[in-house]
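Same chain as my last thread, 544 residues:
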Amino acid sequence: MSKSSAYVNFNVRTSRRMSSAGEVLQQGLFVALISIAKTLLFRSYRSTDFEVHRNWLAITHSLPVSRWYFEDTSEWTLDYPPFFAWFEWCMSRVAVLVDPNIVVLQNLNYAGPLCVLFQRSSVIVTDLVLVYAVHQYCQWLRQRVKVSAVGSRTLFLAVLILCNFGLIVVDHIHFQYNGFLMGIWLLSITRMMEGRVIMASLLFAALLNFKHIFLYVGPAYFIYLFRVYCFPSRRRGVLIAAPASLWNFSPVNLVKLGVAVLAVFAVSFGPFIYMGQVQQVLSRLFPFKRGLCHAYWAPNMWALYNIADKFAIFAARRLGVDVSSTTASLTSGIVGDVEHAVLPPVPPIATAGLTLLAILPSMYYVWRRPVGPESFLRCLILCAFSSFLFGWHVHEKAVILIVIPLSLLAVEQTSVARVFLLLSTVGHYSLFPLLFEPAEAPIKAILMLLSVLWAFYGVRHYVSPSGVTGLNVVEKLYLAGLVPLHIYCSLIHSMIGLQATLPFLPLMMVSVYCALGVVYSWLLFYHNTLSGHWWGDETKSKQS
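reply #2:
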């Protein structure tokens, strides 16, 4: 090699290193700015979840492991899986140094200044797991989609996730640790995309032992891993599914997969199995004594079912039929058993059966046509969708489990971007009632507006080749209807004196209106997946 060639190669390597260092610096500054912005929310409204997690810090710090899942001094008993309990234990080691009063069991509803500072800061710090996961996914995306627009798309995606309206509202105002959990989940999805299925399985198994709500998407992992990893083949070094015949089945891979997953559960539940407390732990994790709906109706099928029962009551009374109204139990915001007056009652087994029926087409599709890891991601999104729509005692916050993975596909495929714009807008708006105090009204309105503007701008400039969102007139009118809905719920309802007689009406209107959009988005995404049109759409996206 000549001296000139060596000099050129040296300059190229140096330029790449400087470019990489500059990119890391920019990312670091971006994360720092987001973190600083989140500190401005420290003094905002806190839900009872703030006390829930403070109490869990006290339980795990003050009591031996054998009493963690029996302690009931507070009504906010420990009801998350063992890994999350250990997560709280680790944080309690720091909490006691910041303010010893945090970890005192008898200090119910304690929220001293140092306590607020510690717990709020802990959410920001643990969000770094999500930051790392987004970085990893964007790296994979750059390697897979080698087009000039990929840098803009990864920026679009990073902002969509790290500044997600739902995560900011639920974690940094309402108070939870969903960003940390979403980080583990996104890392699992990234490893699956990379073909590192054992690592993906380990991460997902660990995630289930942090928060069992992710069981919603467990079927997608099961069917895809069994179909692709246990009937393996490789094309250009990429793991793909061979024809599902006995000759292609790999019992070795099945054993490896099973051992990896069972090992995680053994570490998590092992101590409680040894102490004979598994039944007690499970009774805390799955409290089926709770009602069909959460504190207010999540925007799902049961919100529509409940309002149908209300109309049935009204119609029956107009016809002279005497029925007992259960309005109070359905809309008062108290968690409990729901009793419908006209329509048949809905037991937990019925919701489980409907959820299974709703996800079966997506699982069958993955089994018959496992077209790379994108088919896994689609199945995962449909499992999250179906569980949200038909599940028992679904939290309104669970819509985030659909929005986050949907955003991964939305930055690549224009047809999915249309679904994403619909779902993210209506799904995020459905979280508005979580922040019910007047002081938070401008905060949630501004955050929502910025979130919607960024989503629409990104789709038009980074995803859609023609610069359009793909929404039709009806869909645009539906989204525009959120404005008068919000004006009525936040202003007109109280101005016309209905707050005293119909206090539940704004919650019901938000839940039902948003439920229509969520159901429509689910049907739209299901049709897009089963029709197979997304293959061509993805190809166009890669070439744009």
